[in-house]
Amino acid sequence: MTVTEPLTVRPPQYVGARVLRVEDNKYLMGRGRYLDDLALPGMLQAAFVRSPHAHARIASIDISAAKALKGVVEVLTGAELAKMGTPLVADLQREEVLPVGKELLATDKVRHVGEAVAIVIAESRYLAEDGAQLVSVEYEPLPALVDPEQALSHGAVLLHDDVPGNNVAHIEFDSGGVEEAFAKADRVFTKRFHAGRQHAAPLETRGVMADYNPGTGHLTIWSSTQLPHFLRTLIAPHLQMSERHLTVIAPDVGGGFGLKCHVFVEEAIIPLVAKRLRRPVKWVEDRVENLAASGHAKEIVMDIDIAVTNDGRFLAFRGRYIGDCGAYSGYPWTALIDPLAAANLLPSLYDVREMSFQVDAVLTNKCQTTAYRGPGMAPGHLARETLIDDIAHELGMDPVELRIKNCIGPEPYVTVNNMRFDGGSYVESIRKAQELVDYDRFREAQAAARAEGRYLGIGFSPFVEAGTWGSEGAKALGFPAEFYDTASVTVEPDGTVTVTTGTFNHGQGHHTSLAQLAADRLGVRIENVRVVDGDTSKAVWGAGTYASRSAVVAGGSILYAATEVRNKLLALAGSLLEASPDDIELYDGQASIKGVPEKSLPIAQLAGVGYFGGALRPEGQEPTLSATRYYDPPQTYSNGVVVAIVEVDAETGRVDLQRVVAVEDCGTMLNPLIVEGQVHGAVAQGIGAALYESLEYDESGQLLSGTLMDFLYPSSTEVPTIEVSHIVTPSPVTEGGMKGMAEGGTIAAPAAVINAIADALTPFGAVIRHAPVRPADVLALIEAGRA
Amino acid sequence: MKPASFKYACPTSVQEAVGLLQHFGDDAKVLAGGQSLVPMMNGRLAQPDVLIDINQIAELRVLEVNGGLRIGAGVRQRTALESPDVQRVVPVIAEALRHVGHVGIRARGTVGGSIAHADPAAELPTIMLALDATMTVTGAGGQRTVPAEEFFRGVFTTAVEYDELLTGVHVAVPGPASRSAFVEVSRRRGDFALVGAAVSLELIDGAARRVRIALSGVADRPVLAHRAQEFLEGRDPHDPVVREEAGRLAAADLDPASDIHAPGSYRKKVSAVLVKRALSNAVNGE
Ligand SMILES: Cc1cc2nc3c(=O)[nH]c(=O)nc-3n(C[C@H](O)[C@H](O)[C@H](O)COP(=O)(O)OP(=O)(O)OC[C@H]3O[C@@H](n4cnc5c(N)ncnc54)[C@H](O)[C@@H]3O)c2cc1C
Fold first, then answer.
1. What are the residue ranges spanned by the domains of chain B?
2. What whole-number distance in Å separates Cα of residue A522 and Cα of residue A528?
3. Quick one: which of A704, A750, B97, B210 has the most CB atoms within 10 Å?
4. What are the Aldehyde oxidase/xanthine dehydrogenase a/b hammerhead domain coordinates in residue numbering (chain A) (predicted)?
5. Domains in chain A, start-ordered, CATH in brackets?
6. Which among A125, A288, A715 has CB closest to B188?
């Protein structure tokens, strides 16, 4: 098979078919163009001077030696940048939340290792780094806070004078009868879980290039971002420029995973410097900067309580979430992105009518936290689902049956905190997974292995994924703001189709999946559809791609716009074929009268008439064939299960992850191939959370995992073949029935793996309270159990 | 992550390289596969004034069996791993090399580079210590040989002086009674080991002789487990009780350091397990 050839055998309908990704050829042929590949004549390169201290006053900065170095064009400190642009202030429209500002470059003090204090711009990155080495900064170290509970405690040093208690927000929710439910419960189970500090670690780090044209007053920014339009809207005020004079282009982007759905100071600094120097400037983040100074994620200290009857019915959930949010509130989503998302998804798929939670988003002298696939939801899930396994063990119940006993039904369901689930295969998916792993047989094999001194374990982790992020969905997770997206659909004069969208494909396969939707709706072949995104001057405005939203939000807006254009085509065809538009069928590039296939016209011909047909157009129909529509979906939630099977080496603590089975239900699937790819990637990152990923700081706030030798993530050798199967429960509320997916694996896999480890270690009574679980931790659990 | 500027020399003979080292002294660094040196230069942890690239020195790329296995310092780790001579004569070296990074790293990294770099968790120094290998070091005054036990002096420190080049390593051809094995535990495949254990012994009438047990990741250099070696001498390593005791003795005197990947106490315990397993693999994998 040669993938360069277009599909010749077309499926009856593209949506739901395993269409090969049209964007892949470019990457496979090495013709992708990433930020680092871009160059402009006269371009300069930038390097940052970054703090070696976790918390310190800046006493002085001497840039003279750096400025004197041959090849260095400019050196700027925070004081200078403060005159050029304004700080990024992250805030949320909730009264509990305090705004937290981040200066473009630190002026008075630094708050984490890696925070930038100066920028050196030179003829090459080498020279810029030479210059950076010559900048001498005098610091007066301050006490560092690395423990969020300590940071919250009375009398702790303040990171920001205007954030008392170092707490960005204290948020509470209480359904009313929680304490009563706990008081009358037969049993109360409690667990503290500390989820590890992770990092999205995209293969391509961040990077920005900017070019200012003094002749036009126009500034072009290239950024390795997930949200080009949103970036333009958010950054314009900080550059003191209007949006009409700004173009943002996201070139090919080598992964974002949520990290790049933020706006960073560098995205203001580089354009400001380019404008000042009137030369193009580029900065490509290196891995050390990426690990220390972009965004960390998911470290939350959680206390979860569950009130249970003796027969295993959950009566109430109570959660306390202390986010270890780092030194700033990530812009624009704020430091709540992890702890608040964790708290709001506490009910998951369990039918619990009483719940309360408390959330604190605490500032510490670490890198700020930002979104990373399954933000908050993943650590929150880990705490709850490991506790549920502990409960099953304590009550002598099967962990799968305990879950099913408490699971909601398949119909739409409103959670105690008002999330509107749109129905799903909650129980069915668990049963299916059980079948796929042959659960009973596994339990037999496990018992037999144990008799030989081998430790096998299985972990089930059913999930609900709060993706999609339309306005309602975001609000339900605690983030009130308007989130929708726009798409334009145009049938060009030759009958080919151009779709533009404000979402941005950076690996998800949108150029295929979104084209599938448009092709079906317009009755054309997918080869004739082109999806354009990633450039504010070429595509319509939109909020970008993150939170598993594009299939639903971009998909819905494309369906709306394509329907409008379709109606124009139908009218044209009706008029030319002398039939009612209602009797016209559009398929495979032909418009024909239903049941009379010989009465047909190529869509290309219709398009010609649509543009140039003059009187041939139906009365009143405007020329051209284009529509722009927006879509803001109601709440929608995908669901599924991840099951992991492990064998633990009880002498070394090594965990052999033998099998991962995933059942995914994301409603209407645009393309199962792409869905499966997303599940694979998501599960792989979940395995990272369970076993590897941890950014460690020492007590003085030094980052101990500052390179990829020490920050470990799973590679192909650590990820087994992931077996994916599907259930399709279309959403009754979204256009097209799609539900946002791509984070479920990351949300669920950590608990699946950790529950499997705990299950393997049942003979030792192991209770796992933190992630990742290293071999040394496993051995310690075994020893504690033996003692 | 860009190196500071440096001068670059590319000698084509050992003699020329040694001359350059003499001339530049402490300011120079040898560049072999670059898999350890270049990351350090990129992070500016190493800022040599002069880089002496030894990749064009053909005489360093010799791999031959001639009264022993001789591996030139410039032989790529991958070449050594895939070498029929290595696999036939001293297969345990290949066994150890499989754990060194990934194929891309081994394709650049050299046998000499790993030994000269002397990371305390590295596989090659450990296996060379267990095999009682001899390093050949060449300086202005000519060649000298250094047994592995005297070669590794501390973290990233060896017997090679700054004006010398490690030119090769020599391993005696093991006799028919020889048994050996290498095992390790790492966080992920290809990572530096948390702990590694290499054993080599002769099995004569069911009894172990000339036992050498080397451990990585437990001290500032690869170390021999002397008490375990002495204990095993004359005993039957097929006996699990014997192996267990050897493991215990090997770990008993260790005091490994802690890091974010494992506390020292873990490394100590696992040393005992790995010695036991390496012994088992050596004698049961016959
Ligand atoms: C991702 C990654 C994973 C890795 N994993 C492992 C692993 O699991 N186990 C492991 O052992 N190694 C690992 N390594 C290191 C790798 O094995 C290196 O190849 C090795 O440590 C150095 O060999 P080199 O030829 O690349 O030497 P270089 O990096 O070129 O040099 C290393 C040092 O040795 C000196 N040197 C080199 N050759 C000579 C010589 N002939 N004489 C005198 N001095 C010399 C250099 O001056 C330098 O100081 C890994 C490396 C990477 C990048």
1. 7-53, 58-171, 178-284
2. 11
3. A750
4. 29-143
5. 24-32+484-631 (3.30.365.10), 35-142+200-293 (3.90.1170.50), 300-474+634-786 (3.30.365.10)
6. A715
Q: Is A376 helix (H, G, I), strand (E, B) or coil?
A: coil
CB contact under 8 A, A286 and B3: no
Residue A300, C-beta contacts closer than 8 angstroms, at least 6 positions apart: A194, A195, A321, A322, A323, A324, A338, A339, A342, A376, A379, A380, A383
Ligand 1 centre from B114 Cα, in Å?
4
Interface test with A, best of B40, B243, B261 (most A CBs within 10 A): B261
Strand (E) positions, A615-721? Answer: 626-631, 638-648, 655-665
Q: What residues of chain B lie within 8 A of the CB of A710, using their CB?
A: 260-261
For residue A30, the model assigns a pLDDT of 94
* The CATH number fitting domain B178-284, selected from 3.40.50.150, 3.40.50.2300, 3.40.640.10, 3.30.390.50: 3.30.390.50
B58-171 CATH, one of 3.90.550.10, 3.90.1150.10, 3.30.465.10, 2.40.50.140: 3.30.465.10
What is the predicted pLDDT for the residue at A5?
A: 43
What interface predicted TM-score (ipTM) does this complex get?
A: 0.96
Q: For the segment A283-332, what is each residue's pLDDT rounded down to a tens digit? A: 999 999 999 999 999 999 999 999 999 999 999 999 999 999 999 999 99
Around ligand 1, the residues with Cβ closer than 6 Å are B 29-37, 54, 73, 99-101, 105, 109-110, 112-114, 116-117, 119, 122-124, 160, 165-166, 190-192
pLDDT in tens, A187-227: 999 999 999 999 999 999 999 999 999 999 999 999 999 99
Tokens of A401: 């049956």
Residues B237 and B262: beta-carbon distance below 8 Å: no
Report d(CA A499, CA A517) in Å as an integer: 10
Tokens representing residue A103 in the block: 């200066």
